[in-house]
Amino acid sequence: MKIERRPATALLPVPAVLVSVADPRTRRRAAANIITLAWTGTVCSAPPMLSIAVRPSRYSYELLQRTHDFVVNVPRASQVEMVDYCGHISGRDLDKFKECNLHALPSTRVSSPLIEECPINLECVTRHRLSLGAHDLFVAEIVAVHYDDDVVDSRGRLVPAKVDALAYVHGEYRRLGEKVGSYGFALKKRKE
User: Fold this and answer.
1) Residue 79 domain-assigned?
2) Does residue 8 lie in a domain region?
3) Is residue 2 part of a domain?
4) Would you tell me which of 10, 51, 73, 132 could form a disulfide with 115, CB atoms 3.0–4.6 Å apart?
């Protein structure tokens, strides 16, 4: 039997990511900021695009409005404490790169920096912004992707298990589990 509940964000899991954004014109001591987000996802494959949802009250929102670019940095599960910390302090008050001993690397296509310690970095250019209510949705084209060499195989393909990605599930951080199938495996199995 199904039990109906009030509408809520019950989709799970969602990735827990660190989004870095910078405004080189700022006179603040830290030109770059990091925001922890779980409201993010792939929205298109050609061109490759993703979305992030950010509350307008957040400091990073101001930067996103000015620069129109950002980097989605995929952390490892072992970095969960830093991910949580970056989600609970404001870049208005502290330099999160300095506080978390993270290193900003120059991007190749956007003004916002990569986070060196994250194994996957996706450089993004904002193409659309949509006000939804508590959050605004930024839809962005992925213009460059960077992988650490320890998360790819000998042919340069990503090996997800080596990333040890972090998921967010209703207020909890979780490690992603074992592989249970691959795209198209059900059709192949039925043909056998």
Assistant:
1) yes
2) no
3) no
4) 73
- Mean pLDDT for all residues in the chain: 93
CA distances from 146 to 31, 96, 98, 171, 174 (A): 22, 22, 22, 29, 24
H/E segment holding residue 99: helix 96-99
User: pLDDT band at residue 12, thresholds of 50, 70 and 90?
Assistant: confident
Structurally, how many domains does the chain consist of? 1
- Tell me the pLDDT tens digit for each residue of 150-180: 999 999 999 999 999 999 998 999 998 888 8
Global pTM exceeds 0.85: yes
CATH of residue 176 = 2.30.110.10
Asked whether the predicted pLDDT for residue 145 surpasses 70, the reply is yes
Bridge-partner residues for 21, per DSSP?
A: 33
CA distances from 126 to 25, 136, 181 (A): 18, 12, 33
Helix (H) or strand (E) holding 125: strand 120-131
Give 10: exposed, middle or buried? Use CB within 10 Å, 0-12, 13-18, 19+. exposed
Task: Find the domain containing 173 and state its range.
Answer: 14-191
In a domain, 1, yes or no: no
Distance of CA 116 to the CA centre of its chain: 14
| CB of 124 closer than 8 Å to CB of 140 | yes
